[in-house]
Amino acid sequence: MFKHVLLAADGSDHSLRATEKAIGLISTQDDSFMTVFYAVDTQTAKTDVLHHYDGDMLKEERKKRLAGVEEMLQKANVNYEIVERHGEPGPAIVQFANESEFDAVVVGSRGLNGFQEMVLGSVSHKVAKRVEAPVMIVK
Description:
The protein is an alpha/beta fold. Helix content is 50%, strand content 21%. The chain has one domain: HUPs (Rossmann fold), CATH 3.40.50. The protein has 7 helices and 5 strands, in the order βαβαααβαβααβ. It comes from Texcoconibacillus texcoconensis. Residues 1-139 form the UspA domain.
């Protein structure tokens, strides 16, 4: 079992399945902790601002995307925090994971941005190649 797990999530079905697996990996000890990482890419940020120009509405909309993940973590009594960063998801996850000490990183095989995965390469592939901790990719 792991004490500190990084879960890359965007609210997609794959990230919900990844959440389930991450919960299974984390230790049940009180000092275990999960960090949920949400990367807001440039296109998502632009769309969010156009649809939710009010800052509070924007924060609420982003929070809704991870509501399923949060619900699962709360039901499992997992200690967690949510970290949001702006940038392309692959490099942002890699940078954050490598700057911290995680026992494992869990990521879904696909996210909400299917176009980016087709054109630029898979986020999960970038994470698996460049993160220094063990990586689990969940289909």
